[in-house]
Amino acid sequence: MVTVRFFAAAAEAAGAEQATVPEGTVEDIRARLIASRGDDLARVWRQCAVMVDGRRVAADELVAAGSTLDVLPPFAGG
Q1: pLDDT value of position 74
Q2: Are 13 and 40 in contact (CB under 8 A)?
Q3: Cα–Cα distance, 28 to 50 (Å, whole number)
Q4: What is the pTM of this model?
Q5: CATH number for the segment(s) 2-72
Q6: d(CA 11, CA 17)
Q7: Tens digit of pLDDT for each residue in 32-61?
Q8: Nearest CA to 19 among 7, 48, 27, 9?
Q9: Is residue 73 within 8 Å of residue 10, measured between CB atoms?
Q10: Tens digit of pLDDT for each residue in 19-28?
């Protein structure tokens, strides 16, 4: 399983700060979460950086079981 952590507006759109999903590509995980949590998450996710275990990843990258995927919307301020 993969731990997904949502921050700020992503957490609000997801209705949770964290979720657990099966492994797959970043896009697979995104699609599963949006299917279960709705269009607000889809809208916010488009603006987010996605990191796996502390490094930025592309949508087609495989996320292995035991990894942590962070969904980080743009943050204001410095």
Answers
A1: 86
A2: yes
A3: 13
A4: 0.91
A5: 3.10.20.30
A6: 5
A7: 999 999 899 999 999 999 999 999 999 999
A8: 7
A9: yes
A10: 999 999 999 9
The string of DSSP letters for 15-65 reads: TSSEEEE--EEHHHHHHHHHHHH-HHHHHHHTT-EEEETTEE--TT-EE-T
The tokens of 15 are what? 């209705």
Write down the residue that tokens 């709705």 correspond to. 38
Using a 10 angstrom Cβ sphere, with 0-12 exposed, 13-18 middle and 19 or more buried, the burial of residue 19 is buried
In the block, residue with structure tokens 């495989």: 62
Residue at 16: amino acid letter: A
Cα distance between residue 67 and residue 74, in whole Å:
22
Q: Read off the tokens for 52.
A: 């796996």
Grade residue 76 by pLDDT with cuts at 50, 70 and 90. low
